[in-house]
Amino acid sequence: xxxxxxxxxxxxxxxxxxxxxxxxxxxxxxxxxx
Length: 34
Fold this sequence. Notes:
Layout: H1 9-18
């Protein structure tokens, strides 16, 4: 989203306060679900 362009550290900090295992997505990120 254009709202979150630039430094996403503030967004990550807010998300981790609720969901501690949060990570930031990057282009071509692959996550294996089991």
